[in-house]
TrEMBL record:
Residues 1-20 have a biased composition (Basic and acidic residues). Residues 50-183 form the DUF4396 domain. This is DUF4396 domain-containing protein. InterPro entries: DUF4396 (IPR025509). The keyword Membrane applies. It comes from the Bacteria. The keyword Acyltransferase does not apply. Residues 21-36 have a biased composition (Basic residues).
Length: 192
């Protein structure tokens, strides 16, 4: 029930870099890195984090989550599982794919797997958790949402609405985290 399967790869791999590299030279997105570099003093300017950067970070997470959720629902449906186990699988796969997209980018920079995994956990955990809560909450609370099947048009428009709500609510969370050197800010130091 989550995450923009579409624009994510390009957003995180390229969009974010472009959005962040606008900041200034070596500090790679000055705002993001100040907090990560433990420079949480007066030099940190959370206001410098643009909504575009936050939206790109959110789209990146949303893509991984959407892939995982749809795949989990397809598998659960194919196996004849009920709503609860299917949703649990979808959420687990949403986290898995969300982390995997971030890991892929960090590993490309030549970082060892253990470090890359820690960075991915730090960058995406809160963002994915908020998205999953909003997304699955919308679907669970929508009348008939949990009973809609993959072949039903209702399933897809509720999913689209849930993803849109997750995006809108998670973007300010990501903006706040990046401005404090957390979340996707920790990823940017590995992107050149």
């Amino acid at each position: 029930m989550q995450h923009d399967t579409h624009a994510e790869h390009t957003h995180h791999g390229h969009g974010e870099e472009h959005g962040h590299s606008q900041s200034h030279g070596h500090s790679h997105h000055g705002h993001s890195h100040h907090g990560h570099d433990h420079g949480t003093g007066p030099g940190v300017a959370p206001g410098k984090v643009s909504w575009r950067m936050a939206a790109q970070a959110t789209l990146h997470c949303l893509t991984g989550c959407a892939i995982g959720e749809v795949l989990g629902m397809v598998i659960g449906t194919a196996l004849g599982w009920g709503n609860v186990p299917t949703m649990a699988l979808a959420i687990a796969l949403a986290f898995t794919f969300g982390y995997a997209l971030t890991l892929r980018g960090i590993l490309k920079a030549g970082v060892d797997f253990k470090t890359a995994f820690r960075v991915a956990l730090a960058a995406d955990t809160l963002s994915i958790a908020v998205m999953e809560l909003i997304d699955n909450g919308v679907i669970a609370l929508w009348p008939g949402g949990m009973d809609a099947h993959l072949g039903d048009l209702m399933f897809w428009w509720i999913l689209a609405l849930a993803l849109a709500a997750a995006f809108v609510i998670t973007t300010p969370v990501n903006k706040w985290m990046i401005g404090r050197g957390k979340g996707h800010a920790v990823v940017h130091q590995y992107r050149h």
